[in-house]
Amino acid sequence: QKCDVQIELGKWYFPNIDLPAGKTAPQALQKLARAGLPQKYAKVTAEITTRLEFELEVICSKGYAPYFLMMADMVNWCTAQGIITNTRGSAAGSIVAYLIGITSVDPIHYQLPFERLLNPMRPKAPDIDLDIADDRREELISHVVAEYGADKTAQVCTFGRMLARGSVRDVGRVLGHPYSFADRIAKLIPLGSQGFPMSIAKALDISPELKVLYDTDPQSQQLLGLAQEIEGNARHISVHAAGIVISPSVMTDFSPLQNEPNGTKIITQYEMHACEDVGLVKFDILGIRNLAILGAVRDIVERTRSIKIDLGKLPLDDKPTFAMLARGETMGVFQLGGSGMTKWLKELKPNRLEDIMVMIALFRPGPMANIPEFIARKQGKKPVIPVHPKLAQVLEKSYGLLVYQEDVLFTALELAGYNWGTVDALRQAIGKKKPKEMAEQHEIFVQGCMDNSHMTKEEAEKMWDLFVPFQGYGFNKAHAASYGIVSYQTAYMKAHYPVEYMTALLTAESGDTAKIVEAIEECRRMKIKVLAPDINLSAASFAVGDQAIRFGLSAIKNVGGVAIDIILKERTNGVFKSFTDFCLRVDSQKVNRKVLESLIKSGAMDEFGKRSAMLAALDKVREMGTSMSKLKSMGQTGLFAEEDKETRDQLPNIEEFEKAQKLIMEKELLGFYLTEHPHAEKLA
Fold this sequence. Notes:
Layout: H1 25-40, H2 46-61, H3 65-80, E1 85-88, H4 95-99, E2 129-133, H5 137-148, E3 153-161, H6 164-174, H7 179-187, H8 200-206, H9 208-216, H10 218-230, E4 234-246, E5 257-259, E6 266-271, H11 272-277, E7 281-288, H12 289-305, H13 319-326, H14 339-348, H15 353-362, H16 371-378, H17 405-415, H18 423-432, H19 435-452, H20 457-465, H21 477-496, H22 498-508, H23 513-525, E8 529-531, E9 543-545, E10 548-550, H24 561-571, H25 579-585, H26 593-601, H27 611-633, H28 643-647, H29 659-670, H30 680-683
Helix pairs in contact: 1-2, 1-3, 6-7, 6-10, 8-9, 9-10, 12-21, 12-22, 13-21, 15-21, 17-18, 18-19, 19-20, 21-22, 22-23, 25-27, 26-27
């Protein structure tokens, strides 16, 4: 009763940021954006300056200038460090974001509306999401902590919640039922779709078998009834994959904190939305593997060919890149690699970036039905007729078809009399598939078309029907443009630097055997040699050598990072001359028997002799190495003859394993057959 805590919600508290002397945040943002004009545009038109001044007015009047400056600082710091980033989502519709380096997409060229990110009539704060190379995300987080202070930064928590199937299994366990009983009921609950998780109530409606069980079996009814009670509750806490918050004073002024479970990170006890409600500035920084691959290819090309590549300045009309995509050679290309997408690309034969953008947007449930029509119109097999004359310019690049969320919004703005304030309700109703809201918007839209565009009710209803495929699956055009550029960059690098690209891809996926197998198959198709691991030639990861890819030591099972570091460090003193020489020179505790066995069986030691002989002599050579290490440490090396004799192999003269046996060893240690398939001769 003596406590009176009042937490003000809905107000932002910006951290203290470094500003030029005597400048406010709005002034600093205006100066930075205007300075970027001549760098980004060869000809600054009235349309560009009008758009820039409008955006600056909205951003500054709403108090968001510090947010844009902080975001620019992060992205430009990454660029200076050579870290690949990509700003996804509606931020690509901002010319201010483009001019100050936050995004790499020209919103004027791609006709991206700023109002989708921020508009004068919408109270919601802008949300700029950043993708970053997943192998360098921690570097950016360290920079943010150094910039704003460890006591003012934290990663955001997320709650793992009890979903339908998990709730049933958990309740079954607590009630003491056999696992098989609860598991059988859980498996009768259909899986939900992305963004729309399944509930037990919905499952009872759509699964007849589950409903019969519920109605006829009291134990099942009790189990499902209790599971519904706990469904949706928080089950455990963990670290959000992307969220980071920054505060102006110590973080505990705004949010309770805790250590992450089983880790060292400091995380909030408020989840993402609550962090925003109490006024913390939140950044979504998500690690993406394809950006790490892009950065690695760029670095490999620079290191091996002495060619410096600026990914932001690649020609966007490169014929070999589009020809590769049209042939369906898309394995490992960002967003374009699946078999379904590849099939459509071969039919489409893309020849401009907009084609890639459209395919990324359409290749999802619902809008996918428009792909054949889009291809037919592009190839001139069907006429390009916009859904309405007023939308001809808006839909020009998509051949008159509705493709993006923005197309839906522009349709409502142009035909049904919506404005940027009211159209957001339509976007949310369509995106979230809420029946009540959809019914309200349906009525407003149809009446608006009749009043503003003099349509008949039937024509207006037909226009509304075009929105149906977008329910829950509509793709943001600015997001498609951002992703389209990354897709194009990965395709360009694969088309022009195939060996380097596949090396980077193999390295990035080295922990996933299935993906390695797929990438090795792609190398074979591309006629790129993948050489077996070699103790004297392999690096830790996959490496380029003489237009071939050398297998990395880290991809061999049981060979850990510590052992590899010791091997590579010792190799700087000279190559290993024999198996015995290797065993004498490396630490036998860190490079233990299991590591040696794996290196031999995988073929990494083949230059020293037969695998069978090395395995047979393994214990004897290791013992000798241990004895010699002790004697050397005691200064008694003189007891032995010259070092050459010490390190010469004395392996038993036994038969080598048969080829099939060696291939089985390869499969065991690498996860697949590298040199050839055991049935290759039979298949030939």
